[in-house]
Amino acid sequence: MLGILAAGVVKAQVLTPEIIHGDEDTPKRLPNGKLQSDAILKSEYDQNVKDARELTSLAKSIELDLDKDDQYVLSLGMLKKLEQVEKISKRMQSRIRH
Hints:
Layout: H1 2-12, H2 17-21, H3 36-68, H4 76-97
């Protein structure tokens, strides 16, 4: 009788893959009940909107600089703004591709 009871305890302690790795098909939820993936997508969308507004502002500023400067002069400030445009657009592309 003790042998049957011991075998039952050993069998009950066998770990299944679900116990070891967790249920990977179940979406992760935040403490507020929302899906983690939805929260990430919302955050990335908000950041893309913010970056798009900054790109628009930089483009307008570059246009004003071009109108103001001489045709033979390119200011260092404008070059820095153009580099910033490139940096922001790469950051947006990276977020959109994921």
